[in-house]
Design a protein that fits this description.
Length: 502
């Protein structure tokens, strides 16, 4: 490992964190966007380099200031971290590449440097959570990403984003407080904040009740941050009223990072050390996962706003992720991690296509989009690709993770048959709400005016935006046919997580 490769975990956070204040100073039009985009692409390149190293057998551990854990701040990147880092930095890069014109339209020029600086702070915070090996520093980066997320969600011209952000802030603050209380209880009993050291010391604690209370606080707090049903109330409005580029970025990766912390804490710290906690984890989360799939999909079937529809769809898809994890098996956990990756591809594509659609149509209600696909066939064809992946059609990335999930459920006997029925019903419901959008845009009578430009002729999205939308769409097909990379990362990460579970 070269000296530069050794510093990659620190650079993953330092690059966007240090360049964010520089972006604030770039006042000429377009310069802040260019700097933020280059910074995000650099972060993506770092994530790719570490992923390649991990697949080649490298181990990335970094001690800040030379102080080794548990006394210093440790950074660690493994297959699970690398999988989600690719999503965060990739979603940020695609959102910025595709979103310039959309952001120019929704955010005043003089405020754009502050907006792009906040965007980079979101990237730095999410990346910091993923590379941190320390429970308290996860909280610090969690707050950095959350505070910056509130800024970018409320950064557009739609004033309805303000109450949505307020709800987001309240729920996020409660979740972070619960998480911090749990970490404090564990620190009180073990005297360490390093996750690996914490896992070794918990079984030495004679009084386990504070640890059990901590597990409850941490699980509920992170479930709030991850929008696990029924703690999802902040998510649909935040996605609906945020600037379109922000929706594409956060919908692809924000909740996945909270799920990453939840799964790492539970499988590394709690389940190996607390007798019967694997059963508690399954008994608590499996019913919620089933309800998330059915209720989230049902609400999505009756929504008329495309972004809100996709927001409730995300609630259902988080249910699939939690369902795989609640099986507490290697195949189930592999399915869960694969679906984190594949759902990010599908949902990112869908929101990018919606952003392109919004460039020509002012309203995103289905009634206002009649015949949109006949005027924007390339945009809506990319949307269809993303929808097929979300449903789990063979040949798309979404099929792979759902196949893993069905395979894991088969091993559970009669309970597994019920879960398979839920998965199939949820997928059929996804067909219904996806078809509602396809029907409105492809087969409904055309609308006669364009509320955005007042033109009578509505054409395709701008070419630069359309190219990025199709790049995202094609990744769903590529990773549906060539599955080696996500499977290697997900299966390796699942094996490492479940290794200590009794």
């Amino acid at each position: 490992m070269t000296s530069l490769e050794f510093h990659l975990p620190a650079l993953q956070v330092a690059v966007p964190l240090l360049l964010a204040p520089v972006v604030v100073l770039l006042r000429p039009r377009g310069l802040a966007w260019a700097a933020a985009t280059v910074t995000s692409l650099m972060a993506f390149a770092i994530a790719v380099a570490m992923t390649q190293g991990i697949l080649d057998g490298e181990v990335y551990r970094y001690a800040m200031g030379g102080w080794e854990a548990p006394y210093g701040i440790g950074l660690r990147v493994d297959r699970f971290s690398a999988l989600v880092l690719l999503l965060v930095t990739g979603a940020s890069s695609l959102g910025l590449l595709a979103g310039k014109q959309s952001i120019d339209r929704s955010i005043e020029t003089q405020r754009q440097p502050l907006f792009y600086a906040a965007w980079l702070l979101v990237v730095a915070g999410l990346a910091g959570i993923l590379v941190s090996a320390d429970a308290f520093n996860i909280f610090v980066f969690m707050e950095i990403s959350s505070l910056a997320s509130y800024v970018v969600v409320a950064g557009g011209t739609d004033r309805r984003a303000l109450p949505a952000v307020f709800k987001y802030l309240i729920m996020g603050t409660i979740g972070a407080t619960f998480y911090l209380i749990g970490v404090g209880l564990i620190y009180m009993m073990t005297g360490t904040l390093n996750l690996a050291d914490m896992a070794m010391r918990i079984h030495e604690v004679s009084e386990q009740r504070p640890i059990l209370v901590a597990a409850g606080f941490i699980t509920v707090g992170l479930a709030l941050k991850a929008a696990v049903f029924p703690l999802h109330v902040w998510l649909p409005n935040a996605y609906t009223y945020a600037p379109h580029a922000v929706s594409a970025f956060l919908a692809a990766c924000a909740t996945k990072v909270s799920l990453y912390v939840l799964l790492r804490f539970d499988f590394v710290v709690f389940q190996p050390n607390l007798l019967g906690h694997d059963f508690q984890f399954a008994a608590f989360l499996m019913p919620l996962a089933v309800l998330a799939i059915l209720v989230g999909s049902t609400v999505a079937m009756f929504e008329s706003n495309i972004k809100r529809l996709l927001g409730y769809s995300s609630v259902a898809q988080i249910g699939y992720i939690m369902l795989g994890a609640s099986l507490v098996s290697l195949t189930g956990l592999s399915a869960s991690l694969l679906h984190i990756f594949n759902h990010a591809l599908a949902k990112g594509t869908l929101f990018l296509a919606v952003m392109a659609l919004a460039m020509r149509f002012g309203q995103l209600d289905l009634a206002s989009l009649g015949g949109a696909a006949r005027r924007m066939p390339w945009t809506m064809s990319a949307f269809v690709v993303g929808a097929l992946s979300l449903i789990g059609v063979p040949g798309t990335a979404g099929f792979i993770s759902k196949w893993y999930l069905v395979t894991a459920a088969f091993a559970e006997g009669p309970l597994g048959y019920f879960l398979i029925a839920v998965i199939v019903v949820g997928s059929l419901m996804a067909v219904v709400y996806s078809w509602r959008i396809v029907e409105a845009t492809w087969f409904a009578p055309e609308v006669q005016a364009n509320p955005v430009t007042a033109e009578t002729t509505i054409g395709e999205a701008p070419m630069a935006m359309l190219a990025v939308v199709w790049l995202a769409a094609l990744t769903n097909i590529y990773f549906g046919l060539f599955t080696a990379l996500p499977r290697a990362l997900a299966e390796g990460a699942a094996g490492a997580l479940i290794a200590g579970v009794p």
